[in-house]
Amino acid sequence: MNSKLGKTWLFAGYVFLYLPIITLIVFSFNDSKMVTLWGGFTFKWYGVIAHDTEVVDGFILSMKIALMTATASVVLGMLAAFAMVRYKSFFGRTTFSAHINAPLVVPEVITGLSLLLFFVMCERLFGMPERGIFTIWAGHTSVGMAYAAVVIQSRLLEMDKSLEEAAMDLGCRPFQVFYLVTLPLIVQSIMAAWLLTFTISLDDVVSTAFLSGPGSTTLPIVILSRARLGLDPTVNAIATITVAVVAVGVLASSLWLSRQERRRVAEQSAAYREGMLVAIEA
Amino acid sequence: MNIAKSIGKNGIVRFLKRDWGKRSVIGIPYFFLIMLFTVPFLVVLKLSVSETDGIHFEDLTSYADGIFNIKIKLSNYIFLGTDPLYVETYWSSIKFAAINTVICLIIGYPFAYFMARSPASMRPALLMLVSLPFWTSYLLRVYAWKGLLDDNGVFNNLLMWMHLIDQPIKMMYTGFSMTIGMVYTYVPFMILPLYSNLVKMDLRLLEAANDLGATPWKAFWLVTVPLSKNGIVAGAMLVFIPSVGEYVIPELLGGPSTLMIGRVLWDEFFSNNDWAMASSVAVTMVGLILIPLAIFNKYQADSGGVRGV
Questions:
Q1: Is residue A180 located within the same domain as residue A107?
Q2: Residues B106 and B154 in one domain
Q3: β-pair type (B61-64, B67-70)
Q4: Are residues A35 and A116 in the same domain?
Q5: By the number of CB atoms within 10 A of the CB, which of A20, A149, A229, B87 ranks highest?
Q6: Chain A residue whose CA is closest to B254
């Protein structure tokens, strides 16, 4: 296929992907109540949201839940990834893998509703848990651990297993092997999984709506209730801030990851050269 | 004798240690997945056939006077199967999800193809640009289309300013606006698995096809497309399954004519407070996506996953 068509198609595709985000940002600086008519440049909507307790409280709660979710998801997801990659046969492995893959695609209204009804049943039987930060966290973690498992799993699959075997031959205990060899090799995917589950949790609205109780209104729920009513410049201002934070975060983490990668390659080749020298001298 | 004994002992200790490690590595995540995924769904299944009084549920089984009773209420399902509005909602959900999948494939396949055939040095940047919108809020990206498609929105203003139209075109709250929102949200899920499939393809196969006299177009249809079948299936499932139960997009961009089952479930639960009915809707929805779900799971198990964003 010719490259002119290719370039046009790619260009049009990226315009499609980025146009809505750009308009969101542009209209957050619009000095007019009518969100889509340009009325001059202003920062006033940022001032408005800074003093909007609903937005600020929602943001703080969302950050708390996202931190908890990302950490729990990465730990559980890493265990699940190890189980899938390292143990090719165990009782119920097929169901296990279905359990990891299903939450990636099952519509959130289903997971949200079923977890809520489950928690309500628990509350009736045991008097806990109350709906709130804990139930939201549990719901986010059930999806987050599946994402984390998939991300870490793909890294584990391409990892050279002989490195672990070598460490074991040299007398490492299983825990040492994990801590000294495996973990440094998969740390990038763990970081990626942490960031991914963090943003998924920060952004989640459907299952949160089912699982939140009185007094636990996260930022996406605030946004949804405003967006439902129509166009709202404060929503644009929130959007611009999140885009800025994400841009900085993604840039910083990709810089960090590429530096890590370069250092690893440099260390590896240094070790290789040293090994060659030793071999030649011997 | 002594040596044999100590080896045997060591072996047992190692076996025990390894086994406990294995058990906890598998057992801990398994426990959480079952508690947070399977058990809740069984609760939904139970409530969908329970006798209800408001939000209080009766037990399915009871024992009195030496008679063990099991009571399964099917009226919710009978209602779902016969009520014309519900039947239409199911059809409409599947229809919109299918249209979404086809459009995503039409846009996404060439996109992934051209990405995979671009110079190797450019690919990481192109890939990053596709996955970057994932990192920003999906809710906000859907909301953004409201501003673009509204009667007073950017597109209508632009067209009126250029004097191409005098009256705003009605785009918001229609099937059109909802489909645009769905395609926009889900097209990266089509592009990414297709890209990772196409980029691995052995280009010598195309040279061979060319040597054997196939035109580039013919080689594309006879070699490239069949080889990318797995990517197409993975992408189609990643788009189709979640869009059947989509809630946010129909809520923000859809209108009265765009019936979607996810939104109906939401209304049954939050507006009508009918938990049993909402449960039945959820169970039926799972029934709708069960086959696509099985295909997706098989693909994931074969390939070791595609969703490493």
A1: yes
A2: yes
A3: antiparallel
A4: no
A5: A149
A6: A228
C-alpha B155/C-alpha B149 separation (Å) is 6
Task: At B143, list the tokens.
Answer: 């909301």
| Most A-contacting residue of B25, B49, B270, B299 (CB-CB within 10 A), to test interface | B25
Domain shared by A27 and A45, yes or no: yes
One domain for residues A154 and A177: yes
- Overall residue count recorded for chain B in this entry: 309
* Same structural domain, B28 and B135: no
The parent domain of residue A255 ranges over 249-282
Residue A1 lies in a domain: no
A107 touches chain B (CB under 8 A): yes
Q: Do A223 and B137 touch (CB under 8 A)?
A: yes
Give yes or no: residues A263 and A131 share one domain: no
Residue with tokens 């825990």: A175
Q: Residue B129: which domain range?
A: 80-303
A113's enclosing H/E stretch is helix A108-126
Same domain, B214 and B284: yes
Measured distance CA(A79)–CA(B22) in Å, rounded: 10
pTM for this one? 0.85
B-facing residues of A in 175-214 (CB < 8 A) are: 189, 192, 195-196, 199, 202-203, 205-206, 209-210
Task: Say whether B33 and A99 touch across the interface (CB within 8 A).
Answer: yes
Residue B28 tokens read as: 């801990």
Regarding whether B57 and B27 lie in a shared domain, the answer is yes
Question: Is the same domain home to B96 and B231?
Answer: yes
Together in a domain, A64 and A194: yes
Assigned domain for B40 exists:
yes
Helical pair A219-229 and A53-86, crossing angle rounded to 10 deg: 120
Give the separation between CA B180 and CA A23, rounded to whole angstroms.
16
Does residue A4 belong to any structural domain of this protein?
A: no
Q: Measured between beta carbons, which residues in chain A are less than 8 angstroms from residue B255?
A: none
Record the tokens describing residue A61, joined without a space: 């709660």
Instruction: Find tokens 């996109």 and name the residue.
Output: B111
Q: pLDDT per position in chain A (282 positions), as tens? A: 457 888 899 999 999 999 999 988 888 888 876 666 777 788 888 888 888 888 899 999 999 999 999 999 999 999 999 888 888 777 778 888 888 888 888 899 999 999 999 998 888 888 778 788 899 999 999 999 999 998 898 888 888 888 888 888 888 887 888 888 888 888 888 988 998 899 899 989 999 999 988 888 899 999 999 988 888 888 889 989 888 888 888 788 778 877 877 887 888 788 878 777 777 776
Domain contains A189: yes
Among B12, B46, B70, give the residue marking a domain's end. B70
Residues of chain A in contact with residue B143, where contact means CB-CB under 8 angstroms, are: 24, 223, 227, 235, 239
Q: Tell me, what's the ipTM?
A: 0.84
Q: How many other CB atoms are found less than 10 A from the CB of residue B107?
A: 19
